[in-house]
Amino acid sequence: MIADLGDVYPAEGPEKVARAIARYSLEEARDSAAFDEGYGALDAFFGPKGELERREVLAAWLAGVHTDRAAPIVATYHMLLARGVDDDDGRLAGVRDVYITLDRAARRCVALLSHALVLPEHRRSGLAALLRAAPVALARRALAEAGLGGAGLGGAGGDAGGAEVLLAAEMEAVDPGDRDTAVRLFAYGRAGFSVIPPAVLPYAQPDFRDTAALGVAPVPLPLVAVVRQVGEEERGDISRGGAAAFLRHYQAVHAREVDPAHLVPIRENALGRLDAFPGERVPLMRIPRGPAEIAGFAPLLRSAVMPLYPPAWRGKAPLDDPARELERLSAAWSRGAGES
Description:
about 350 residues; Aminopeptidase; two-stranded antiparallel sheet
C-alpha cells in the first residue's frame, strides 16, 4: 500500500480515510497491462475534455525514457491504481498519476499532481482523500533514495533531513457557470492546500497540441497554482524559492513534452511578476472550504485571473466585471444549496 494515514491532512477526516486504507489497495502500475488499464480509465474521463497527455507520452515517462538523472531537477512519472481488496477480481476503483520532481541542490521535492479519478461507485468512500495524500509517500521515497532523509517529512524547513516537500496542483480559475471549478477547490482547501496568488505567480500550462503539424501558434492555458507545504499546512506564506519552484518543477517536465521555446513566454510572464513582488516570503491565499465561504473565491474568479495574462491566452469567452461575476457565483451556489 502506497499510503500512510499520517500523510493525510486532518481536515480530510482520518477515520474515513482509515476505512479507505482498509478497503482499497493502492499500488504502482509496473507493466503495460496495468498502465493500459489506468490510462484507459483516465482517458474515458479526461480525454474528451482535452486534459490528458497522449498515451505514448505517458508510456514513455513510465518507462523512464524522459527521466534524466543528471538534470538539475530530476522528474519521474508514477501511476497509482486503487482496487477494492474485497473484490475477487481486483476491479479498478480509482487512478492517480503524478510526477515526482527532485531538486537536490535546493533540497526540495515537489509532487506534481496530474490526474485523480475515483470511479462513480467508489465516491464518498475516502478514496479521493487517499489519492490526494498518496504522493507524499512517493516524495518520501525519492528523498530517501537521494540521501536527503525520509524517516520523517516536513514542509519548508521541516525535518526529513531539512528537505522541503510540496504537493502542487494546476487548477482552473473559478467560473460561475462551471460548478466543478469551485467543487475541486473546496476539496483541495479541506486537504491542506493553499493558492499562490495569481497576481504574484500567474502560472500557465503549455499548449500540448502538435502546433507545428497544425500550423498554429501555441496558446498557453492559464491555471491557478495550488500547493500544500507538507508539515507546514497552517503556514500563511511560502518562500520565494518555493513559489518559483511551482513553475520551475512543472516546466522541468513540460520541457520533455513540448518545444522548450514555448515555455519561455510562460516563464517570463510568471517570474516577471514574482520578481517584482517585494519581500522574501509570498502570502498564500486560503481556499474556501465550502459554499458558506464562497465569497472567498473573488481573487480566483476568471474575471480576476485572466487579465494577468496576454490577451491571446485568455480564451474566447468575454470577461465579466469581477463584482458582477462574484454576484453570479454567489447566486449559483445559493440556488444549488448544500455542500460540495
